[in-house]
Each structure stands twice: as C-alpha cells, then as structure tokens.
Amino acid sequence: MVLPSLFLFSSFTILKWCNGSELSERLGSNDTLSNGNRANLDAAKRLAKRLFNLDGFRKCDVARHLSKNNDFSRLVAEEYLRYFNFTEMTLDQALRAFLLEFALTGETQERERILAHFSHQYVQCNSSLALSEDSVHTLTCALMLLNTDLHGHNVGKRMSCTQFIGNLEGLNSGHDFPKELLKVMYCVFHKYSLIKQHFETLFFALFITDGKFSTEKKRMSIDPMLYKTGFLVRKVHADCDGKRTPRGKRGWKTFYAVLKGLILYLQKGEYRPDKQLSHEDLKNAVSIHHSLAIRATDYSKRPNVFYLRTADWRVYLFQAPNAEQMQSWITRINTVAAMFSAPPLPAAIGSQKKFSRPLLPSSASKLSQEEQAQAHESRFRSISTELVQLHSYPPDRKVKGRELEEYRLREEYLEFEVNIHTMVQERLVKNFKCF
C-alpha cells in the first residue's frame, strides 16, 4: 500500500525515530544558540507567551517560530508547549487538544520537529507512562499518518487496522506496541477525524496499569462551562439569513435546554453529565456566539416567550415555564455571548459592489474581560457612526429596486448591531458576575 503524504516516511524512517539520540538531536540542547551565544531564556518565554495568546500573531504564524532548526526556536517551542497540560489524557486526546489550538503547518521536517516537542511535553505530563518518549513520538507521527489516510482526499483503499499494526511492528523501542492499544486507537481515528473534533464526543481512554492497557470511556478534559439548564419550548421562526421558515416546520417542540459554553443544546431527555449526546441532540443545538435574546413583546399567542437571533440570522422563539425563567434565560444567553464571542472578521470581498455582513467566528474569544469590553465599546462607536452616515444619505426615490434592497439590508444589519452592542455594554459593565 502506498501511504499518503502528510508525513512521507517509511518504516525505516520511523525506526530511526525510535533511536534516543535521534530524538535528542531533534529537540536539541538548551545551552547555546546556533551562533554560539547563550540562549536567551527570558526572550524565549516572552515570545512563547505571545504566540500562545496570539498577541500580535495569527494562528497560522505560530508554527514557523517553533519549527526552525536552531536552539532559540527549540527553546521557544519548549516554552510554548508548557502551556499545554496533557495530564491523564490519552495520546490521541492530547493530540486533538493540541491541534485545536495549534495549526501544524510547514515542511515535513518542520512538522516533525514540532511533534517531537509535543511528545516531550506529553511524557513530562504523564510520568507514569509505560511508553518511552521516542515511542510516543513514533506513535504520534503514525497517528497523524493514519488520520490523513482515513480522512484525507487521497484516492485508493484506506489503511486497514491490520496494516496500521503491521507498519508499527518492532518500533516500540525495538518491541511491538500493545495490539489492544493500536486497535482501539485505529477504531477511534476511523470514526473521528483528528481535527474536526467536537468537545462533547466521548472517546476510548487508554489507561496503563502494571504495564497493561485497559479501555473505558472517558470525556475529554477540555469541557465547556455549564451555565444553565431547564425546559424550554422552541419554535423555528426564520432560517439562515432571515428567510421565513416553511409553515410545516414551525411547530412548537419541548426540549430540555442546556447552555454549555457557546452552545445551547436542546435535548429530548433531562440533562445528565455522563450521558453522551445523540445525533439528534447535536442537530438541534444552537450556537449562541454573536447572538441576541430579547423578550417577544409582539408575540401574544403564548406567555413568557423570547426571541433568539443567531449570528447567521436564524430566529427562534422560546417559551419558558414562567416570567422569571424567561428573564433568566435572556440574561444568561446574552451575558455568555457578550463575554465570549470573538471579534468579527472583515466581510468577504467580491467583484460586485454588494453589501456583505462581516464574518462572525464561532470560536470563543481569547481576550480578557477588560479587553472584550473595550472591543465591544470600539465596535459600538464604529457601527453607530456608520449608521448615522447611512441615514444622512438616504437613497433617492428614483433609484432601482436593487439599490433600495442594498440600503435596507445595510440599515437592518447596522441597527441590529447597535442593539446588540448596547445590550453587550450593559451586560459587561453591570453583570460580569451574574452567575
């Protein structure tokens, strides 16, 4: 079988990784820089901190600062990896957690250097691990290769479990890896791609007891905070971009709502921490980043109803059991969205002069609470000024329908943003500690 090309290595190349001196050479010495001067540890720590916090750097820029073949880059990589705590994680869980925060880019040798530092940090966090650092590094690279083979766009037959185990024969410091370990890892990677991993997915955790591997289910340690739970009745009012939901799909349905992180999960049964989310639960989930919840004062058919408009302009109606619960849901949703929604990205640019809303990232903001409040205040001033300017030059009555529609869309968007940021500032100033 021809293996795919994320890491173009043969069994002979992997075998070289099992040599302790080879890995030591990759990690390098911390004593001197490549020009002979003593490494500046303080400078490396400062740069690593900025890279981890994306302070002046983009996510795609980080890898090139960690993968250079010199002592200072190795120092920076070592300090950067210290920000990750892989304690009690299985290797695949640690790798998933790492790649959620880090974009692994560059040439094959550059990626391999970074994975060497990852392996070193993983072993440091798990001192009771039965595998050596070289074996962890070998298995890490093999898992990256397996993921590409199973989920990449390569044409041909996918790697089988037998082939995966066969490729690693004798590469555990001269011995074989436990077959049970490799089988479970193969099953996990066959079902779940390495990068596109949902926080709530349960994985097989591998625990080493007296040198033997056992399997049981364990949740990833990266777990969003739980903010509120309770019964809500939902009605879909508008689909993506505000398009009216077809009449047959607007019915009211009762769910047990769970606000966890930036996701509002709508489950059929009552919430239990140990219960795995079903496909239907994930399908019904609503992302609340950049959303706005307001009381539905114009809706009189049911009491205690509030609107929820999401970042993609879907609109939901939710009915709470009573007025107190309705206000509590509105407060919690708006506060979480205000505190953790990441700053918007510039709108897409096309050849046509057509209004496009900015891109709203679904990932959580990395800003501090103070920085988040300042970002919202700055955004509010900018949007307010833009809205005033728009109203200062209304379209002429003689303009075509397309231009009127463009004006309407822009006005609707700006007014919505002003309302959001007005509410956001109140939430951040008055209610940072509302829960």
From TrEMBL:
<dbReference type="GO" id="GO:0032012">
    <property type="term" value="P:regulation of ARF protein signal transduction"/>
</dbReference>
<dbReference type="InterPro" id="IPR000904">
    <property type="entry name" value="Sec7_dom"/>
</dbReference>
<dbReference type="InterPro" id="IPR011993">
    <property type="entry name" value="PH-like_dom_sf"/>
</dbReference>
<feature type="signal peptide">
    <location>
        <begin position="1"/>
        <end position="20"/>
    </location>
</feature>
<dbReference type="InterPro" id="IPR001849">
    <property type="entry name" value="PH_domain"/>
</dbReference>
<feature type="domain" description="SEC7">
    <location>
        <begin position="23"/>
        <end position="192"/>
    </location>
</feature>
<dbReference type="GO" id="GO:0032587">
    <property type="term" value="C:ruffle membrane"/>
</dbReference>
<feature type="domain" description="PH">
    <location>
        <begin position="225"/>
        <end position="338"/>
    </location>
</feature>
<dbReference type="InterPro" id="IPR023394">
    <property type="entry name" value="Sec7_C_sf"/>
</dbReference>
<dbReference type="InterPro" id="IPR035999">
    <property type="entry name" value="Sec7_dom_sf"/>
</dbReference>
<dbReference type="InterPro" id="IPR001605">
    <property type="entry name" value="PH_dom-spectrin-type"/>
</dbReference>
<protein>
    <submittedName>
        <fullName>Pleckstrin and Sec7 domain containing</fullName>
    </submittedName>
</protein>
<dbReference type="GO" id="GO:0005085">
    <property type="term" value="F:guanyl-nucleotide exchange factor activity"/>
</dbReference>
<keyword id="KW-0472">Membrane</keyword>
<dbReference type="Pfam" id="PF15410">
    <property type="entry name" value="PH_9"/>
</dbReference>
<dbReference type="GO" id="GO:0005543">
    <property type="term" value="F:phospholipid binding"/>
</dbReference>
<keyword id="KW-0732">Signal</keyword>
<dbReference type="Pfam" id="PF01369">
    <property type="entry name" value="Sec7"/>
</dbReference>
<keyword id="KW-1003">Cell membrane</keyword>
<dbReference type="InterPro" id="IPR041681">
    <property type="entry name" value="PH_9"/>
</dbReference>
